[in-house]
Amino acid sequence: MSLISLALSRGDLVETRNLIADNWTGGLEPRQLAVTDPSDGGLVSNVPDAGAADAKAAVDAAQAAFNAWRGAPARDRAAVLKRWNDVIVAHQDDLGRLISREQGKPLAEGRGEVLYAASYVEWFAEQATRTNGEVIPSPFSNKRILSVREPVGVVAVITPWNFPAAMIARKIAPALAAGCTVVAKPAEDTPLTALALVKLAQEAGVPPGVINIVTASRERAAGVVDVWLADDRVRKISFTGSTPVGKHLARQSASTLKKVSLELGGNAPFIVFADADIDAAVEGLMAAKFRNGGQTCVCPNRVYVHELVHDAFVAKLAARVGALKVGPASDSTSQIGPMINERAVQKIERHVRDAVSQGARIVVGGERIRKPDSPQAAYFSPTVLVDATPSMACSCEETFGPVVAVARFRDESEVVARANATPFGLAAYFYTDSPARIWRVAEALECGIVGINEGVLAAEAAPFGGVKESGYGREGSVHGLDDYQQIKYLCQGGVR
């Protein structure tokens, strides 16, 4: 084992307080939330376990700061975001180590996530100055018609644990670019990265009250978010997480008609046609599936391989998967880290047991990994299953772990129908060398994101989001800014 230290060179980035207005505070109640390292179960730090009073104070601060921030010239807001980008990049190593410590992903992935997060900050810094309105040809000679874009107001941002830097940046950056102010609650498993990013935003010159962040446990999170849902000063909810929680947020937002962006669960198909480059397809699946140990919303969950190339594909895939190194981020050779917690491992185990009980065969892996030096760690071996069927839990639910379930198919129409036979519609992937098939299949798949002969999809310039029960709204791209704005129509009479 080649050991590396996950200690930060700048220790004060491990912030353990909430930020409300310009004050770092321990919270209005003396409750604490423990943040643990999933590689060994050890305590990393304690943060406030906030409640309703903290949530209201955050909205008070955001509302108080809104008029000044929305009134700032767009280039001034852009300049603040550019400085934030610069300090994020300057602290890439420390932030990467913090991500690896509280989330468990290998350090190379942690560092990579920091640059991915910064790319959204930089992108929306540039977009801040491009929120143009329109001059609309008037049907009346004595009137002029214009439309302008305005910020929606205070935005509540609720982020998941799997990408603790990227998700908070992907939501806060467009909000600030549009002129909105923010109240944020990061995931209970990984709050430290979000707190560090907000600390750097403060150092970059984000004015007091423009970003406010509170941390809360799983048990008390609803009490925090319910305050924001009920408060009519909060004009938008942006959430990434499970579909059941997203549905609850949508229902509760209806009482005040908030704008809502939801990036929810997925069940991504990965299709390998007979004419595909098999080596390229294996590489694409490895990149798409095993990033962050399979704990991503767009990772392939159902793999369909044409019967003519099935055996060759599985043999190549199994060789690659079996060679993956599982271990903590403190081991520089680790490629797959621990799962986020014990519940995650139990779900993976349930999926594998269910698949085997229904006739699936384990080609490689299939077991929890016990490490004597880390008995509390949540490791699971990278796994390949074959003979998967639609009735298996791994075909119906997100496994959210390093498990590939492979099924055979015979023809295009059959596999497209199977790919679409899910309530979800976030991402899909397919490999083929046929130009005609590329267009047919891309148009037929019911999802918001399609990877065509490509396993790595996310980019700050691309619109990220799903359809059906995978949610609505888009993050990234020019469309990502639209979700934080509203259009106002101006009609001026008496021109002639």
TrEMBL record:
Protein's GO biological process: gamma-aminobutyric acid catabolic process
Keyword entries, A-Z: Oxidoreductase
InterPro entries, alphabetized: Ald_DH/histidinol_DH, Ald_DH_C, Ald_DH_CS_CYS, Ald_DH_CS_GLU, Ald_DH_N, Aldehyde_DH_dom, Aldehyde_DH_Superfamily
Entry keyword annotation includes Ubl conjugation: no
GO molecular function list: succinate-semialdehyde dehydrogenase (NAD+) activity
Residues covered by the Aldehyde dehydrogenase domain: 29-489
Catalytic machinery residues: E263
Pfam families named among the record's database cross-references: Aldedh
Protein family according to the UniProt entry: Belongs to the aldehyde dehydrogenase family.
Protein name: Succinate-semialdehyde dehydrogenase/glutarate-semialdehyde dehydrogenase
